[in-house]
Predict the structure.
Amino acid sequence: MHRSRNAKIVATLGPSSSDAATLRALFEAGADVFRLNFSHGTQDQHRERLDIIRAIERETRRPIAVLLDLQGPKLRVGTFAKPPVRLEANAAFRLDMNPAAGDATRASLLHPEIFAALTPGTDLLLDDGKIRLVVERCGPDYAETRVSTGGMLSDRKGVNVPGAVLPISILTPKDKSDLEFGLSLGVDWVALSFVQRAQDLDEARALVGGRAAIMSKLEKPAAVEHLDAIVERSDGIMVARGDLGVELPAERVPVIQRRIVRACRKAGRPVIIATQMLESMVASPVPTRAEASDVATAVYEGADAVMLSAESASGKYPVEAVQMMDRIIGQVESDPHYREMIEASHTPAEATVSDAIFCAMRSVAGLLHVAVTVTYTSSGHSSLRAARERPTSPILSLTPDVRTARRLALVWGVHSVETADVRDVDGMVDTACRRAVDEGFAKPGDTVVIAAGMPFGVAGTTNLLRIART
């Protein structure tokens, strides 16, 4: 089986999507990637879900990507003697390292890294931005603030510092344990929370050691300021719009989303648009029209994937949410103006041999109306560069490594298949034509265009373009 669309669907798993029947239904409805959110659930629960995914993979003979999403640092205020408390606008409010229960005048904040980053005038956001404080005086273990926007505050609510880069590791002890656990199970992607700068990825990259691809979640204003460097250092990007919307004005998020997508497309990095895409389907069998338009906008922009969070993890209609997303993508990609928008947002390729090959492949696909473009890849690089060009025909990615095939399940337009390596040009053409027919992309007599590297079996050597008939 193969999808008849280019953009991919990421479905988050949770209480509503844990049994084998539901997971199979999600896959058949259109889910290409399953997200294991380690902010919730136990390691044993995630292991059970991953075992089911691999069983579905074996049954359907289609590689499925599994994304491990690490929780990351959680910065929170302490507890209160009589929660909740009301913080009145213009009132003074103190945050400090004293673990004693708080009241309407103070609260504990046991995060010295936050105090280290504060200066007078810095904004602090509590409870997803519902309460705003302005720092008036601060030291290494306290901050005297003035309440700018008041409200009710209860125990353990989150703290955001939008105007500062916090001196903090993005990997907590829990994250390191979850990371090693997930890697031992064979997850394909690892999503990192709280990325602020490119160098934040170094520790995770060393721990992963090439066992999975690394995805940076962009949820901090500082990350947007260092966008190009983070994109360059990452294997993929997730636009975490919910967190961005807390620390940035809501009206800026759509503009930043488009900027991130363009940066990823230019660099050839897959990008996921996430958070609240079909939020109303947590409780309703149909989305709002605005939500449908939101998904469509991401597809028109050329994003690699769109993601469901609570809709598929804890909502009442997980399968219907995937089906709806699948239908929206199908409608957009059948719109004659879709290709115009994809072409208009295309950026020049790099001056390399492999990019020259894939630029030519894109031109051939458009001129000859080929049934499918076929790439041979060991590491996945060739298929990623082919996808960067957004050709008019689907991309059949042939690889001898199942891990590569799974990672590529996230990438725009790529249908990845595990196959034996080839040893000569005739074998390359025969295998490409046969698999194109077997996978349902071509019929006898169709034209296919094939990209590969010589010598065969050596990563990073794409230098050959061949046109053939099935």
